[in-house]
Amino acid sequence: MRVKKTPLNEEHRKLGGRMVEFGGWEMPVQYTGVIEEHLAVRNAAGLFDVSHMGEIEVRGGGGLAFIQELTINDASLLVNGQVQYSALCYPHGGVVDDVTLYRFDGDHYLFCVNAANTDKDFAWMEAALEDGGFADVQLRNRSDDFAQLALQGPASEAILTRLTNTDLKKIPYYHFYEGLVAEVPVIISRTGYTGEDGFELYFAPDCAETLWKALLETGAGDGLLPIGLGARDTLRLEMKYALYGHELSEEISPLEGGLGWITKLEKASFIGREALRRQKEEGVPRRLVALTLTEPGVPRADYPVYEGERRVGVVTSGTLSPSLRVGIALALVEPDCAVIGTPLQIGIRSRTVAAVVVKPPFVRK
Amino acid sequence: MEFPEEYRYTEEHEWVLVEDQLVTVGISDFAQDALGDVVFVELPEVGTLLEAGKPFGVVESVKAVSDVYAPVSGEVIEVNEELPDAPETINTSPYEDGWMIKIKISDAAELDDLMDADAYQAFIEEEA
Q1: Where is each Lipoyl-binding domain found (chain B) (predicted)?
Q2: Which one of A133, B8, B110, B126 is separated from A229 by 20 to 30 angstroms, measured CA to CA?
């Protein structure tokens, strides 16, 4: 497979970005350092190139019915200009992908999906469209038509205001507006995956350099920094946000992976509903918990979790929290170990390190 | 990036400073830069017997875990006790304050296998 590049590849290199392969794309993992970049987003603002994310458009009068069958959340609750976090499931209840869904109007929706899953998701949607016999639905993979930037952090609104006439105060959390930023037509979405206030901007790829430079320049005085994938991961982890391939996968259901809150079993029908309903009735075999280490150490994905001598689960993501300066982890554990305050141990190489189940998020704003 | 002339280097990016039968060991400027922010260091206890080429400790950045390998065989006679409490010292001072252990060398001939600064720089360029 050829590694793809975003339109900002050269800009990342000019800024000293350390490039790595991620989900089939060459992306910057860091510029100056993960901790500095992480703290910039928490305290000021950060700019992320997220052009690798995929976009899949649904048009036509049958779009909502199709989306309702495809997703676990209730898309009928959306109004025009609103965004919903959701997921696609297999019939057995495992997760195809976690997604955000944008409603432009009743005949026009857009999914934003994970980069590595874009082709898989599109094929999955096409198959569901065919199987379901949905009339008047047009499905298009529009990933090549969009570049995407995420501006995140407490200074985001002040920075973006300088480049747009759109009244950003009128865009609530998880809503969007189509406007101009630095004279470029942009979908301005008040969303993100860092736990901070911020925006995700969708626009034509040939405008990426203009927007990237305009934002970095106007935000420089506010402490805005370009941010790589390294800090993107530590920021989402501090909020206990799931990452596909870690907390969610074909083998992990949304109920296990902490997405019970978007799993709308009361919906009449959706792919995976029966399996998930059964899992809920019988009780999930394992649950995602947030763990804080009470001894020095850095937990990592795949490390075993113990309660005394008993192996009770596995770490799905772990790091040293740049905000808290202690080891934090997400882990799938047996349900009786998921109670807040339960002392557990994480196997780190040849030793076990003490940890405790805590109430997420790790970092409160 | 700095590669002091008086040090020797391994292919695993450790540095060695030789003083009589005593060698001080750390990781190179190149290694700390590649790792990024170092947040955790695990060192052996004084008295541990090391075998050249075998891991003796661990350096962790936010993103990755890396073993550190013994450049020579011998006994650990001192460890940098301050390092576990201030692991970022490896980033800020890899050749001085960021030293990791001192080894009493058991076979001085093993030093001949190590690279000098020029050879190490050439090695890094070749690897890149």
Answers
A1: 22-104
A2: B126
